[in-house]
Sequence to fold (341 residues):
Amino acid sequence: MSVTSPTAEQEVRLVLAGLRARAEELSRVAEATARMLASPDSLTPSAPLFREFVREAVPRWHFAMLNDHERNDALATALERVIPRGGTVLDIGAGTGLLAMTAVRAGAEHVYSCEANPLMAEVARQVVADEGFADRVTVLTCRSDELVVGRELPRRVDAVISEIVDCGLIGEGILPSVRHARSELLATNGVMLPKGARLLGMLLQSENAVNLNRVDRAGGFDVSRLNALSTPGHFPIRLHTWPHRVLSEPQELASFDFAADPLGPGGSKLAVPVRESGTVHALVAWFELDLGGGVTLRNSPDNVGSHWMQALLPLAEPVEAEAGETLLLDLVWTDTHLSLA
Fold:
């Protein structure tokens, strides 16, 4: 009796089924999490197992992000300047509830804050209650594209705020989230924060950097098969920590108007003047986030205090370039990934 090997589609479905099972596991522990967080001194003997689960379920970047005072101050200033006084606000990505509470302090009447991770949603719910905002902030355990006006939201909101951005701007899904919220949840002439963003970048020579996501031989053995599991598209790098040469001036790679642009997958053709001769291994990219009210937030390589790293986009193959030449590249993006075609 022969056994038919699974197709690539079947393999992908199997992986997705595992991810869904993981999501169901998160939901099952949400209630236990609420009890444990409410009474941390009464943690049961199973606490070590719980801590191990938390280690996997809660990204560590939450801590660095909350300790990024430049980020916190910029968002607070922008909210103070743009939030409609007495308005209703949707906060996409509650985290610990910081932006929601800051929006209330800036004059919002009520904030609906959604968080897909049930552990983080419970943290936010308890932080909001402890800080005395429970009557003004409603934390919802769901994705923003699961919200329905007339069900979770009493009416379309006066403002949408969100800072679900990664090192390359789009990796946490800000494009589809804003696209949906703008169409289905935001009132006519409602406020969007951020207003828009630019991606900037420059040519980079750094074999050390691209080897963070690529391998050929190790210990005399060919281990390049691992490259099939490398990160597709952009990945984070803190540029100043790795040997590198910058071969071009910074230039704009793409821009997004969150109020007017389609915010779908797309691309742009880049013509990058080469400033110094060398081997081009990658583009290093970063964002400038227009929060409104004259406030900009950026993760450029010279902003070493930012908790955000930069985004590295490797070329398929290194290119030798001479000073004075212009290197032509195709930048493409999906809803969540940047890459060079």
Q: What stands out?
A: The radius of gyration is 22 Å. The helical segments are 8-38, 47-57, 61-66, 69-82, 98-105, 118-130, 174-184, 207-210. The domain at 196-340 is CATH 2.70.160.11 (Hnrnp arginine n-methyltransferase1). The mean pLDDT is 91.
